[in-house]
Amino acid sequence: MSEEEPTPGSVRPGGRTARTRAAVLAATFDELGEGGYGELTMEKIAQRSGVHLATVYRRWGSVERIICELMIDKSADIALPDTGSLRADLLGLASGIGVFYAAPRNRRVMEAVVAAAVRQPYAAEMLRDFFRDRRREAAVLVRRAIERGEVPADTDTDAVIAALGAPFYYRLLISRGPIDQDLAETTAAAAYEAARAGVFRHPAADAGER
Q1: Fold designation for 16-61
Q2: What is the mean pLDDT of the chain?
Q3: Per-residue pLDDT at 148
């Protein structure tokens, strides 16, 4: 194993710190693919990555912190489309989510983070923040649609994205069914039609009418 112990702030991005991170995340991804969260240990990650165990502990402290970081890293692969149409944008996003979770190892990453969230407050907070941040990022699709006049001006952008994503996580974590293109298409269509019909009105708008 290589001993990698850079002083915080002393290493340029792309240097040893970045290589250590990449090696550890890749090793964790591979270990999850082979054995799942229940068999994942810091020792296995260190051995597979070639990074000294002390370095892995010092930087991350626990398996749960590594898998949370891995989830954030991997989820960046899901692109936010900009087609000029909310219907097409929602379908593009849903298709991206579907392709991502159709890969067994990506499913295992999410399953591992959810399992960790049950046991550790850090992982629970991380999971909550992850979904909040992803919804906020994706909400730009709905804001563009509001500007184009496709949906009511008081549409709750966060609620639209939550409605788009929820069926995937129900299928992934509860019903344990397949994540496929059919799910992506029906979910996107439902979210689009509901948004167009004004189902996702912002709570402030309803309060103002009382």
Answers
A1: Arc Repressor Mutant, subunit A (1.10.10)
A2: 87
A3: 96
* CA distance to 28, 97, 131, per residue, from 164 (Å): 29, 10, 12
Joined together, the tokens standing for residue 46 give 């260190």
In 3D space, the residue among 171, 166, 165 whose CA is nearest the CA of residue 141 turns out to be 165
Q: Where in the chain is the domain with CATH 1.10.10.60?
A: 16-61
Question: Which band of pLDDT confidence, cut at 50, 70 and 90, is reported for residue 11?
Answer: very low
Contacts of 195 (CB under 8 A, 6+ apart): 86, 142, 145, 151, 155, 160
Between CA 91 and CA 99 the distance in angstroms is: 12
Q: Are 131 and 72 in contact (CB under 8 A)?
A: no
CATH number of 72-201: 1.10.357.10
Separation CA 125–CA 146 (nearest Å)? 31
Instruction: Dump pLDDT digits (tens) for 162-195.
Output: 999 999 999 998 998 889 999 999 999 999 999 9
- Whole-model pTM above 0.85? no
How far CA 43 is from CA of 51, 61, 63, 66, 140, in Å, comes to 10, 12, 10, 13, 41
